[in-house]
Amino acid sequence: MVWRVARSEGARAVRERLLDHLAEARRRRGFPLLRSEPDAARFPFPVLDLTAAQPVPWLGGSQLLLGSRLEREGASRPTALLFPDRDGWRLELRRDGLRGHLRLRAPQPSPVDLDLPAQAELVIDAVRRVGARLVHVHGLAGWSPRALAAATRLPSKLAISLHDFAGFCLRPHLLEQPEGRFCGFSRDPARCARCLAESWSLPPGFQERRREAMAELLRSAEALVFPSPYLATAVEELYPGLPARRLVLPPSPSGLPRERRPAPLFPPQHVAFVGSVHPHKGAAVFERLVREWRGPTVRWSAFGNGDRAWLDRLRSVGVEVRGYYRTGSLPELLVRERVDVALALSVVPESYGLVLDECRAAGVPVVAFAHGALAERLVRVGAGRTVTLADGAAGVAAALAAPFAPVPAPEPFDATDAHLGLYRELGIL
pTM value? Predict the structure, then answer.
């Protein structure tokens, strides 16, 4: 892995990854294996948090934010987090300054199995071990919907935080294959079957049955939590009849770096592609922009890990690949590298767009395509420009041809207090 990352992303990316792995190892050691079960009858854990992916920093985004938020919530309430581990599942418990974990046996997450009784038994077992009154599911990717529905048969309540469109499709980013374009929320059974067949061998009607099961699960929840108004509206249109308690709780933005870019230079001297380098994130658009650029001399960079073939292609056209960076460090990097404009060119609609918060923290304007939550937020706060997806690389080039206004800093928001407020509203705390 070290050799692969060094070749595709460089020595700095190797160092950053190793630091993250060391930090995660230290965190896990802080939760030693418990020799006895918790006394859930006398000292219950009110909320059981579930996620189908490990809350590790190199997965970035929602997983890292979940881990950091629970760390802060641990000062106000006992926490119980269940997630898949190398040899089964890991249940991390935190109460009154004491920490530990239990190992539970069950199959790993399976996105293509609608009926996974062992996963349902896992949820029920975990609820009973900790005495939870609320099961809070963080993201639907990887879960069997009918397994999660087992939580509704318990005395506990169910809350679901949605991070993407995993409830609507096995491809949470909705990048249609093999075309490599946004599917536009396709409901055409034949079209969806062709797309999914590029990656999975599924029985006829699988997508329709999965969507029905997910819709039933969402409607059974006491509360649904969204990171942006855009995702809330989109899910409401896809699944009419959702529960009345729907909240928009954006993640807490990263702290401001020691310095901010006072104002971007014009014409820009350093333009950076930010985020993972993948086709659905706009890698092909960025490559074409660099190839066809006819403006003043620009230093092009790519901040983020990604597909090795695409990283090599970007290098071949003169892009400096910065590679993997530790989550939360992007604002400092943008300031230190004197980036004038950041490009967030996802060709599918984003459900939030954490990189916008990080670029705003650094005072760097963003150019993005005019769809999804990222564009909605960018326009609302005045942090850059949007370009129609149809205009592609030419539209991005035109957006770089005019001066940018100074970027306002992110507004303070405490996601921890917001979630604690939700739990009080539900009568859990």
Answer: 0.92
